[in-house]
Amino acid sequence: MDNGDPDGTTFTITDLSKINGLLTAFDATAKEMYESDSMTDIARAVYSADNFGGNNRNEGYTNMVDLLGLLNAVQPYAPSASDAIAKLKEAVIYSVNGDNHEGAGGLSLYYPLSVQGTEELSVFADICTSSYYLAYVDSAAYGTTGGDLSDYDNSGLIADCDDIWNYGYTADPNVGSNYSDVSYADDNSTIGIQSVYFDEDGTYTVQLSDMSAFNYATCTLFMTYDGTSVYLGEDDEVVTDYDAMILQDGFDGSWPSIAGQPLAIVAVSVGEDRSVYTAPITLNGEQTNLRIEYDFTSSEWRVCGTWSGIDPETGVASRDTQPLKDGDVIAPAYFVFSDEFNDYIYGDDITVSGELQIEYDALPDADYSYSMSLYDIYGNYYYTTSVTFTVDENGELFFYPDEL
Predict the structure, then answer these.
(1) Counting runs of H as helices and runs of E as strands, what totals does the chain give?
(2) What's the rounded Cα separation, in Å, for the pair 333 and 322?
(3) How many whole angstroms from its chain centre is CA 68?
(4) Is 186 helix (H, G, I), strand (E, B) or coil?
(5) Where is 286: in which H helix or E strand?
(6) Confidence of residue 319 (pLDDT cuts 50, 70, 90)
């Protein structure tokens, strides 16, 4: 029986008698993480760890990160992570992973990739079993406000590890109270931008003045349509020169499309061999998300199926990716910004018959707005100065650099 896409599947059997040893070892690692002078490096490294449940702007955030991936990422800064890894492998006695999670260790934990408000932190504080990890997470969440972590003192959150296990333990009410703005708004970005310009080759270029909190960048597109701005999503065609602190676009005017209609994509995971993207669609009249995968080895796209995302009320992620069936009717969805309304509009219906084809197609002839989205290690994102470009009826692309 076909019950979803096996590439995203994980299955684990855990020896619960080994969990206490794992928690104790992890608490020692969390202490080293919290006390490290390299928090920005740690936060950046953790983004390389596998994660589960979407964790992108299209589908929402669960902030669940693979524990083994996190421990491997922080080990250069927290040497005791090697002991925690050994305890994790003792606790996980059997595991099976699909291709999209082939390095997963069997257990995951909460990590603030993108905190969805201080209430989320309060819930986490009530269930966290390591006071040092709680303090680390609180510091990372404070980073979302754009504040200076060197001046942030939350040492009052550190409690004796025995106390946090007591039946009558109550989480410190100060978690999240030292900062009210966990909005990930542009103004909170900690990335220093020196200038935005077109170089002598006509390439859109961003010169950074500080990359200490820089995580990654994407190119972001909006299409002008009947006086509105239609969001076409983000692609990772950005060339990063860390030595010169320069970002340059690799955009060539093509965009992932289905049946000639562009998809409003956002990356779910980016790897060396394959990357997974998500795009909003309707499926038989119901809003959902289409998961697609690009294989760098074969240079081909594959449709994985649909994923319902994260329940806005419970925060629970959909369990699996459902394959499309012959006879299903889908339509691309696009979020529109205008003076009159902000809502979704929909493309033409596509009836599924056999395997759907995803292609890099030239964008429709129209005017577009191009910018970069710069993400920092705390989950903030910042739109650089946008510039207009036009795609004509022949598929030729023309930028207007004088706008910068």
Answers:
(1) 6, 25
(2) 18
(3) 18
(4) helix
(5) strand 286-295
(6) low
Nearest-angstrom CA–CA distance, 38 and 312: 34
Of 403, 391, 333, give the one whose Cα is nearest residue 362.
391
| Encoded tokens for 304 | 């994985």
Note the pTM of the prediction, 2 decimals: 0.77
Domain parsing of the chain, residue ranges: 6-165, 189-403
Task: Give the pLDDT mean for 283-295.
Answer: 93
CA separation for the pair 326, 299 (Å, rounded): 25
The distance of Cα 273 from the centroid of its chain, to the nearest Å, equals 18
Cα(77)–Cα(18) distance, integer angstroms: 25
DSSP symbols for 15-33: -GGGHHHHHHHHHHHHHHH
Report the residue count for the chain: 404
Tokens of 11: 């299955």
pLDDT single digits (tens) 218-235: 899 999 988 899 999 998
Q: How far apart are CA 187 and CA 175, in angstroms?
A: 23
Q: Which residue bears the tokens 């003192």? A: 153
- Nearest CA to 143 out of 191, 110, 71 is that of 191
Q: What is the pLDDT of residue 258?
A: 96
The whole-angstrom separation of Cα 104 and Cα 106 is 6
Strands (DSSP E) found in 148-213: 192-198, 204-210
How far apart (Å, rounded) are the C-alpha atoms in residues 304 and 214?
31
The CA distance from 281 to 259, in Å, is 13
Q: Which position has the token pair 């310009």?
A: 197
Give the separation between CA 255 and CA 233, rounded to whole angstroms.
10
Q: What is the DSSP letter of 260?
A: T
Give yes or no for a contact between 213 and 258, defined as CB atoms under 8 angstroms apart: no
Please name the residue that has the structure tokens 């993207």. Answer: 277
- In one-letter notation, the amino acid at residue 136 is Y
pLDDT in tens, 72-119: 999 999 999 999 999 999 999 998 877 767 778 899 999 988 776 667
Tokens of 3: 């019950």
Helix (H, G, I), strand (E, B) or coil at 355: coil
